[in-house]
Write a structure and sequence with these properties.
- The chain is an all-alpha fold and 138 residues long.
- 63% of the residues lie in helices and 3% in strands.
- The protein is built from four helices and two strands; from the N terminus they run αααββα.
Length: 138
């Protein structure tokens, strides 16, 4: 297995774990995601398919697409992490009054782990692996 293959495999496993974790938290634990969590899911869920297909076919140039989705997810997760940590003022939180708050520590924590930080770590790890992936795996 080459370094590029390993990077692609690890990125796929990170995206898969994050996706399954988000689905477990929402569907099994019944925790409704906040607005920023929804946007992060929009960036993370396709990464599972894109990276999975690239891993399976061994010929898909995925770097541009993965870069766009991971960068968007990292930016959203960083914003939510700033809200969660109190660095960004709560007055500019994008969450609606009828849904869960982006800054509610009880609603944004599972087993003592802050969800915004976990999301930021997942997106950042995928971004860090991106330079190790070949642009064209053919």
């Amino acid at each position: 297995m080459t370094r590029s293959d390993l990077a692609l495999t690890v990125a796929f496993l990170i995206a898969l774990t994050a996706t399954l974790g988000a689905l477990f938290i929402g569907e099994v634990l019944g925790m409704m995601p906040c607005t920023l969590c929804w946007y992060q899911r929009i960036a993370m869920f396709p990464l599972v398919v894109i990276l999975g297909v690239a891993l399976w076919r061994e010929d898909s140039p995925v770097r541009p697409t993965v870069l766009i989705l991971s960068a968007a997810g990292t930016a959203l997760a960083a914003w939510q992490s700033g809200l969660y940590a109190g660095i960004i003022p709560q007055a500019i939180a994008p969450c609606t009054e009828s849904g869960p708050s982006c800054t509610d520590k009880a609603a944004q924590t599972v087993l003592g782990l802050p969800l915004p930080y976990l999301s930021l770590a997942a997106f950042a790890a995928i971004l860090a692996l991106l330079p190790l992936m070949k642009g064209d795996r053919g």
